[in-house]
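To the wet lab folks,

You asked to see what we're planning to order before we commit. Fair enough. Below is the target structure as tokens, and below that is the sequence we designed to fit it. If anything looks off to you, flag it before the synthesis order goes out.
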């Protein structure tokens, strides 16, 4: 009865054969396309590899003399390239075609702690609109990889490079977040903590149990002889919170090198297994959609007896190899070096024009010198520092910032200060007293960090707003003082935007967040005063960003205006000529910028008194970009803590 569905045997066979042929054809086409695609991808990889192969091999052999480990590295690089998703590959290609993409005037960064900002990764994703309102198109997500609670150094002690801290989300959440950011034109930066692992990392656990293979990935010593030799030349990073560079492990009967906290074990990059595995971690993470990799504590990654174990030539070999590896596998990714050192040590991390290392570096001396200028009201040293930076090749991109998650180390040009009779030790003391609010005409609030009773050295912690006087004025309900503090805060941002490079805001600064003293109640944080400026984002306050009558609204509005000007005016591109101008007033800084026929002068008054900048630009009329007022660029009167952006008409 089921005649309709009936087919004779012959017919069925014929149909089956035809179907089989069709399937095979489709299958052939499909696999043909897949195979072709794979071939094309392999060719692309090969083409990029060819560009760097000889130099990469040369450097690798110089350090490791190990052919098979080099071959393994190349194989894995290829595997990571094949795994890289299409969207990221397209991004890579467009960036390869426009290698200066990050040197425009539209880049504005913000660094934030995921939990403080929005609870977890999904939370950050839901707050991207706010980030856009801040005109930010690059976010630095502070360390989010797995780390033991209470022994994390703010996430800089990583126990698993391939796992997100559970409270913050998952690797899938990270991929979703980076994709959502990319849709909005936002770049994502993360830390790659390559100098050390947490003592809870599986390598460390195995090493502690006496597994030689893993012990060789760290620096293990069964007696104090070599550690004591190292201690003779290696300075201390945390002299009070974590003195010494070695930790005794009673259960293992060994010392292990720990330049930072005792639970952060230094990795031994003499071992090619360490280098290779860390490069695989690096590529794994960039494949999750990371655009900017901040190489944490990079100067420390190579150790050598009888040296300071900082900035050794092998560090540069490693960074150069990383640059080539990323140009081969993920050319859209930028390397940002964390080199918190004096300028002559920082600049070599850019490499050379032919053999570049990092794409970007922190402008740390300028940052510290800025706060010195706030405390002294004397722009001389800052002018000199800016002149040094301005003379560097335009390819070098600096990240400019007022505050970050770390302390301020007072790394100033003491040679110059000493010619004026200002001694290093007494000046550091003055700056620390000033910013704690004890000395000079100070309105600042904050705390010391790692005060070393032996050297007398101490660093400083506090938010931008607190250092500018917003905390004190708020506490004292002093409106005039608040007005002054807001002016100083805005002026400092205006000046930062005028520097060459990319400005990075510290999350919360856009709404003037003050110090958070609650870390003292948490025994896991109390000893580390950096937590004073790592408070949670105050969203209740942020609700006022559009209300110009509030401190929050004033700051947010003014910063927004400056950010829009910076993005609009081409004299702000990284490659613009930048120079300083003598103003004949010790408190007024003048920076000039010129690009393709457009010229802008920025004038910044670092004192609480009205001043006149005795510049003498008689080449015609200028317009002040904030007020729209026409002005001359000579004998310019500037109010206390005021500033102007004068554009030549
Ligand atoms: C970097 C981080 C700092 C951390 C250190 C150790 O300097 O900025 O916060 O303590 O590395 O990883």
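Sequence we intend to order:
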């Amino acid at each position: 009865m089921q005649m309709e569905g009936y087919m004779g045997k012959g017919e069925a066979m014929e149909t089956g054969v035809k179907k089989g042929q069709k399937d095979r054809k489709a299958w052939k086409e499909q696999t043909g396309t897949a195979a072709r695609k794979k071939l094309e991808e392999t060719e692309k990889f090969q083409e990029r590899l060819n560009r760097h192969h000889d130099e990469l091999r040369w450097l690798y052999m110089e350090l490791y003399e190990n052919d098979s480990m080099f071959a393994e590295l190349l194989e894995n690089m290829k595997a990571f390239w094949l795994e890289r998703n299409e969207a990221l590959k397209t991004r890579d290609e467009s960036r390869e075609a426009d290698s200066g993409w990050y040197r425009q005037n539209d880049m504005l960064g913000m660094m934030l702690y995921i939990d403080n900002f929005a609870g977890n990764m999904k939370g950050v994703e839901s707050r991207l609109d706010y980030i856009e309102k801040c005109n930010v198109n690059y976010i630095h997500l502070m360390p989010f990889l797995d780390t033991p609670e209470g022994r994390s150094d703010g996430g800089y002690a990583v126990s698993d490079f391939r796992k997100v801290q559970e409270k913050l989300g998952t690797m899938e959440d990270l991929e979703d977040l980076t994709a959502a950011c990319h849709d909005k034109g936002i770049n994502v930066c993360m830390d790659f903590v390559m100098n050390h692992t947490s003592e809870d990392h599986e390598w460390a656990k195995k090493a502690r149990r006496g597994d030689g293979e893993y012990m060789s990935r760290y620096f293990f010593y069964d007696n104090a002889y070599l550690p004591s030799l190292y201690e003779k030349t290696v300075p201390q990073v945390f002299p009070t919170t974590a003195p010494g560079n070695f930790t005794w492990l009673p259960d293992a009967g060994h010392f292990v090198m720990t330049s930072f906290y005792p639970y952060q074990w230094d990795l031994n990059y003499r071992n090619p297994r360490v280098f290779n595995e860390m490069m695989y971690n690096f590529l794994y993470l960039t494949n999750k959609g990371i655009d900017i990799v901040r190489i944490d504590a990079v100067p420390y990654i190579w150790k050598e007896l009888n040296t300071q174990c900082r900035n050794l030539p092998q560090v540069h070999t490693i960074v150069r190899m990383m640059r080539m590896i990323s140009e081969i596998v993920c050319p859209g990714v930028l390397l940002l070096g964390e080199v918190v050192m004096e300028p002559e040590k920082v600049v070599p991390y850019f490499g050379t024009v032919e053999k570049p290392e990092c794409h970007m570096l922190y402008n740390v001396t300028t940052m510290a010198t800025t706060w010195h200028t706030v405390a002294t009201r004397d722009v001389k040293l800052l002018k000199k520092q800016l002149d040094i930076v301005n003379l560097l090749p335009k390819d070098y991109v600096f990240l400019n910032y007022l505050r970050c998650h770390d302390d301020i180390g007072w790394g100033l040009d003491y040679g110059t200060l000493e010619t004026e009779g200002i001694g290093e030790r007494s000046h550091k003391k003055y700056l620390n007293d000033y910013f704690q609010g004890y000395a000079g005409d100070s309105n600042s609030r904050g705390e010391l960090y790692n005060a070393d009773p032996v050297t007398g050295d101490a660093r400083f912690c506090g938010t931008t707003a607190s250092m500018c006087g917003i905390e004190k004025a708020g506490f004292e309900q002093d409106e005039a003082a608040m007005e002054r503090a807001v002016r100083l805060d805005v002026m400092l941002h205006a000046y930062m935007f005028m520097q060459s490079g990319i400005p990075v805001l510290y999350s919360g600064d856009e709404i003037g967040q003050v110090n958070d003293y609650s870390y003292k109640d948490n025994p896991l944080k109390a000893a580390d005063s950096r937590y004073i400026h790592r408070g949670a984002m105050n969203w209740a306050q942020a609700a006022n960003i559009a209300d110009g009558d509030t401190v929050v609204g004033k700051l947010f509005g003014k910063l927004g205006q400056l950010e829009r000007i910076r993005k609009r005016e081409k004299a702000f591109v990284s490659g613009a000529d930048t120079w300083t101008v003598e103003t004949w007033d010790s408190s007024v800084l003048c920076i000039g910028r010129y690009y393709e026929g457009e010229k802008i002068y920025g004038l910044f008054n670092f004192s609480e008194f009205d001043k006149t900048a005795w510049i003498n630009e008689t080449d015609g009329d200028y317009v002040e970009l904030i007020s729209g007022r026409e002005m001359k660029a000579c004998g310019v009167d500037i109010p206390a803590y005021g500033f102007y952006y004068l554009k030549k008409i």
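Structural context that might help your review: DSSP finds 22 helices and 23 strands in the chain. The CA atoms of residues 70 and 434 lie 53 Å apart.

Thanks,
Computational group
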